[in-house]
């Protein structure tokens, strides 16, 4: 038993033109022009996910680390007195910073909503 074999024709990419309706042709032309491809749509979704990740990261604790290493020769006849004057000194610094910006007034939520748009 089973269903009888039925032959069907392949649906073409411009199926609506078989109806010869100028208004339908104009609507389909406009919709295809404004409609992104799947690749474009996927790129938009990935962009929005990246933007939301960046904005969402602002509500998390932040840490920074900076270092500056320099060597300087001070003039013997300048502003600095002895024992600095006329010598070479290392001027090194390391800085560590921690910060957190809690979302007390909804700023981060508003930024996230704006990024997702």
Provide the gyration radius in Å: 33 Å
Distance between the termini: 55 Å
Q: Class by helix and strand content?
A: alpha+beta
Provide mean pLDDT, rounded: 84
Explain the overall architecture.
The chain is of the alpha+beta class. The chain contains three helices and two strands; from the N terminus they run ααββα. The protein folds into two domains: 58 residues, no CATH class; 39 residues, no CATH class. Strands 1-2 form a two-stranded antiparallel sheet.
Give the secondary structure arrangement, pairings included.
Elements: H1 22-34, H2 38-57, E1 62-73, E2 88-99, H3 107-116
Short description:
By secondary structure, the protein is α+β, with helices and mostly antiparallel strands.
Please give a handful of descriptors for the protein shown.
117 residues; alpha+beta; two-stranded antiparallel ribbon; 2 strands
